[in-house]
């Protein structure tokens, strides 16, 4: 297993290009199952999760061709000859559940392994299943698989989510595009990745309104066409790299960044004393006057502060002047980066969904363990500002969501290298 070695040092300056969004691409790719015509995605990120979704779609009989070094994904689902999403693939990536709605909508039957939990929580899919049942699907949970049937096709229905779920909104939105009649999704997720999916489906001929609000309405169609769609910029990669100059000092321009993707996060980051300005090519973040100030953070569904930036923000607040309280409201176990940051000298007290962080002048480099995708990058951020060397182990977590992280940071004069495992 690879590790990444970071030598803490001075300010970082330069520019970092922001890639297409992993969490948009992972829902745009299954959308190919909704049409027999080709769907091509541009601005796709080069990540291991994309490779996993590619393998899953190919196992169903779809063609997925990676072009331009992975930035373009040319897909065709003309010949789907398998409707079973196998446990061996699904267990590697929970987003595999997103083939369920499209397969059911297209051919009226599907078998998808239940994804199981992951490091940050139990990650149930009950809302996905209840939503499909509200559209007439018959589901049988057996042997760790969802055996789904929709004889005569899915029917439009009213789907009331008791709380916001990104994935469940995506599954139901895709299924509804081919259902007979109108579907209304209440308490829908409002993330930019949902808006991006809706815009892609509309390009394919779907009739969708209200995306980006809590109520989405879909008029089902008999079929969808092919399309070409650019994957939206990755707001979580953007927010992650905005924290680099904040934690090391210096000034970095994030190429392709847009304030509208990170408003709540940017407001909170500005509260710490960091300067954020919009430029021709994206956003510039600068820290010129010493340590940042402590702030309190509470994660919420979009447009609130994103849970996917909580670990990274904690790394910054470990070096802030004062005490911060971070409240994680989305996942039940998303503070696993805390014990690793404590190994680097951070002062963090975790009680359930609350983490109290008392900033220290300087963290100390140490060998640490990545436990999940966003935790791994928070340890890299901490290492950039720490005294001495930090070795982050198990960086396969990192490669799921960040392309060429060493290259992007080294271009801003970070001292960072990858050590290939056995
Ligand atoms: C998506 O996961 C993202 N993943 C996550 O990013 C992100 O943290 C999450 O949304 C929240 O923004 C992808 O888009 C591939 P949810 P998802 O359904 O859809 C519970 C990353 O780091 N829930 O909005 O799985 C669930 O357990 C990843 O890139 C149910 O109880 O998240 C969680 O507590 C991590 N039943 C809460 O809802 C369900 O049927 C929100 O989950 C579904 C979810």
Tell me the number of strands.
24
Ions, cofactors and other ligands present here are:
ligand EPZ
Mean pLDDT: 96
Structural class of the secondary elements?
alpha/beta
CATH architecture of the largest domain: Alpha-beta prism
CATH class of the largest domain: Alpha Beta
Poorly predicted regions are none
Number of helical elements: 14
Taken as a percent bin, the fraction of beta residues is 25-35%
Shape: elongated
Profile the largest sheet: 4 strands, mixed
Query: What is the assigned CATH homologous superfamily of the largest domain?
Result: Enolpyruvate transferase domain
Cα separation of the termini: 6 Å
Named CATH topology of the largest domain: UDP-n-acetylglucosamine1-carboxyvinyl-transferase, Chain
How are the strands of the biggest sheet laid out side by side? Answer: 22-23-1-24
Could you state the oligomeric state of the chains shown?
Answer: single chain
Number of separate structural domains: 2
- Rounded radius of gyration (Å): 21 Å
Summarize the structure.
The chain has 14 helices and 24 strands.
Highlighted features:
422 residues, alpha/beta, UDP-n-acetylglucosamine1-carboxyvinyl-transferase, Chain, 2 domains, four-stranded mixed sheet, 24 strands, 29% helix, elongated, binds ligand EPZ
Tell me what you see in this structure.
With 422 residues, this protein is an alpha/beta fold. The chain has two domains: 203 residues, Enolpyruvate transferase domain (UDP-n-acetylglucosamine1-carboxyvinyl-transferase, Chain); 209 residues, UDP-n-acetylglucosamine1-carboxyvinyl-transferase, Chain, CATH 3.65.10. The chain contains 14 helices and 24 strands. The strands form six sheets. It has a four-stranded mixed beta sheet. A four-stranded mixed beta sheet has the order 2-15-17-16, covered by helices on one side. A hairpin with a 2-residue loop joins β20 and β21. α1 runs parallel beside α7, α4 runs parallel beside α6 and α8 packs parallel to α12. The longest helix is centred in the middle third of the chain and has 14 residues. It is elongated, with a radius of gyration of 21 Å. It starts with a strand and ends with a strand. The mean pLDDT is 96. The chain binds ligand EPZ. Ligand EPZ binds next to α1, α5, α6 and α12.
């Amino acid at each position: 297993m690879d590790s990444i070695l970071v030598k803490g040092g001075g300010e970082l300056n330069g520019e970092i290009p922001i890639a297409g969004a992993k969490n948009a691409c992972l829902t745009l790719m299954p959308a190919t199952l909704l049409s027999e015509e080709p769907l091509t995605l541009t601005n796709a990120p080069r990540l291991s999760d994309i490779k996993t979704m590619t393998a899953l779609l190919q196992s169903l009989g779809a063609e997925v061709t990676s072009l331009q070094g992975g930035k373009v994904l040319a897909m065709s689902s003309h010949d789907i000859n398998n409707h079973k999403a196998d446990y061996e693939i699904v267990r590697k990536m929970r987003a595999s559940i997103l083939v369920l709605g499209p397969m059911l909508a297209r051919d009226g039957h599907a078998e998808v392994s239940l994804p199981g939990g992951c490091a940050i929580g139990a990650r149930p899919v009950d809302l996905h299943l209840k939503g499909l049942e509200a559209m007439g699907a018959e589901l049988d949970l057996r042997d760790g698989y969802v055996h789904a049937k929709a004889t005569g096709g899915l029917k439009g229905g009213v789907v009331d989510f008791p709380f916001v779920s990104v994935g469940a909104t995506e599954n139901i939105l895709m299924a509804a595009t081919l259902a007979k009649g109108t579907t209304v999704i209440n308490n829908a997720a409002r993330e930019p990745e949902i808006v991006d999916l809706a815009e892609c489906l509309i390009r394919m001929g779907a009739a969708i309104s209200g995306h980006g609000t809590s109520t989405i309405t879909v008029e089902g169609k008999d079929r969808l066409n092919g399309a070409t769609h650019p994957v939206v910029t990755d707001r979580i990669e953007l927010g992650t790299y905005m924290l680099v100059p904040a934690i090391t000092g210096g000034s970095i321009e994030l190429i392709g960044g847009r304030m509208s993707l990170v408003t709540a996060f940017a407001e909170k980051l500005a509260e710490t004393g960091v300067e954020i300005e919009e430029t021709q090519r994206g956003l510039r973040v600068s820290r010129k006057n010493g340590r940042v100030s402590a702030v309190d953070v509470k994660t919420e569904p979009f447009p609130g502060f994103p849970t996917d930036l909580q670990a990274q923000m904690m790394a910054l607040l470990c070096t802030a002047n004062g005490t911060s309280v971070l409240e994680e409201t989305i996942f039940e176990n998303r503070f696993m980066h805390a014990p690793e940051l404590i190994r680097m000298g951070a002062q963090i007290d975790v009680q359930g969904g609350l983490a109290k962080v008392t900033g220290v002048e300087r963290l100390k480099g140490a060998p640490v363990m990545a436990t999940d995708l966003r935790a791994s990058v928070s340890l890299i951020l901490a290492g950039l500002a720490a005294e001495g060397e930090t070795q982050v182990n198990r960086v396969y977590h990192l490669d799921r969501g960040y392309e060429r992280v060493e290259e992007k940071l080294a271009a801003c004069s970070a001292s960072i290298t990858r050590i290939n495992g056995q």
